[in-house]
Write a structure and sequence with these properties.
The protein has about 170 residues and is α/β, with parallel strands linked by helices. It contains 6 helices and 5 strands; from the N terminus they run ααβαβαβαββα.
Length: about 170
């Protein structure tokens, strides 16, 4: 029964995300980034990189000292937080939409559809991901890095790019 439910859930999420309209609005990214007050970081379930993610959050606070930074880990998503299909319930999703996040940074693997779903429905004007993939139309910022780089370097690339956007200039 669980396998059937998982297949239905995957197909439903894929359909919902494909129907999510691509962001065609012109945006002034440096201005939006300078105005960031609320950030949501979607973390992968792999605790092996926990120190890297804590350092990343600390670095984000250095770039955005006035911002409130929240994190979401899939392993913290309880069965009671979802509906019968395993998707976040409306009440659970309202936690993300009520905060009015300015930026969502998705650090989960490309195959994590739950995090992509949360990102898509968060209402955040800026949605960032480390790599492009099949659902890249959900995101409007991509930080391209060498896939062979260690996770710590990839996370540093994100904070450096955000710092550059915030300043509005390229580093020399």
């Amino acid at each position: 029964m669980n396998k059937i439910k998982d297949v239905i859930l995957k197909k439903y999420i894929d359909l919902r995300l494909k129907l999510f309209p691509p962001d065609k609005e012109a945006r002034n990214f440096p201005q939006l980034i300078r105005e960031i007050k609320n950030i949501l970081v979607l973390l992968p379930a792999q605790s092996a990189w926990e120190d890297d993610f804590q350092r990343f959050t600390s670095d984000l606070y250095k770039v955005f000292p006035e911002a409130s930074i929240s994190t979401f880990e899939r392993r913290s998503f309880r069965k009671s937080d979802g509906n019968w299909m395993g998707l976040p319930s409306d009440a659970y999703m309202s936690q993300f939409t009520e905060v009015q996040f300015d930026l969502v940074i998705d650090l989960t693997p490309e195959s994590d559809r739950l995090s992509t779903y949360i990102c898509a429905l968060s209402g955040a004007p800026l949605r960032m991901r480390l790599s492009e993939g099949g659902l890249s139309h959900i995101y409007n910022l991509h930080v391209r890095t060498d896939p062979q780089k260690p996770q710590k370097e990839k996370l540093k690339s994100i904070t450096e790019q955000l710092r550059v956007f915030k300043k509005g200039t390229h580093p020399q």
